[in-house]
Specification:
This protein has helices spanning 19-26, 30-36, 42-55, 60-68, 76-85, 98-107, 153-167, 182-187, 201-208, 223-257, and strands at residues 4-8, 89-97, 114-120, 122-125, 128-131, 171-176, 193-196, 216-217. The chain has 280 residues and is of the alpha/beta class. The strands form 2 sheets. The protein has a 6-stranded parallel sheet. It has a two-stranded antiparallel sheet with strand order 4-5. Strand 6, helix 8 (182-187) and strand 7 (193-196) form a beta-alpha-beta unit. Helix 5 runs parallel beside helix 10. The chain is globular, with a radius of gyration of 22 Å. The protein starts with a strand and ends in a 23-residue tail after the last helix.
Amino acid sequence: MAEIMVIFDFDSTIIECDSDNWVLDDTALTEKFYQLLPTIPWNPLMDRMMKELHSQGKTIEDIVEILKRTPMHPCIVPAIEAAYSLGCDLKIVSDANSFFIETILQHHGVWNCFSEMICNPSHVKEGSLNICPYHDYLKSCHGCNLCPPNMCKGLVIERIQNSMAEAGKKKVIYIGDGNGDFCPSLKLKESDFLMPRTGFPLCDLVSKNSNQIKAEVHGWRDGKELQHVLLNLINKAIEEGNNTINNNTLQTISLDCKLLQPPIPIDTHQPLPKALSVPQ
């Protein structure tokens, strides 16, 4: 099961909104943020908004309480826990910031299910939250015109794929919704699965550029469908892996015994037992 890696986007995938916008809306900074956005890139502008909240007397604890109220579909936590319990390697690749993501996942008790979080780094300094870009675009350009300047998820996926080859992992299930998830979708292989959220930008991009997508595509509309589709795909991957092992074993037995007697016929078309029952 360590051969399967599940990669989640965060905003509008694990949670039901954009985490930055959720905090801005709750603190009445949305209008000011979007007035300044044409002249200041998103990440430094969010960093500026956090400093403004601090100057207004808002504490880190106040921000934590806002994040705890972030909407999440009730099937998301069980889906994460089930994938983790089956031995999948879970990662987050997101354009959100680490403080928001970690706070929300810790609140829901699933932070420890993830082996890695690749996102915009953030830290608390002198009572204020500092947010930095994942890729320091002021020093260099990542060179991808499909992605925002602070993060190319396609480059992140390529790094993960290289580490998977070294660790013996073979299959990726990628779950996302936004424009920034299209570039990594192009990097997936034929043996992988792509789960774009129906009605969101990624799904439209995949539909319009289906000839460029190698992975098997399975859409989902909400947390309930995400859980259902994800667990079905994990079970499918487990069965494929078991069938490969069984076929290799049968081949070895046949080679070892061919001089003694014909191998006993085995019906390899019988379905293997499910690793986990999937809610209907």
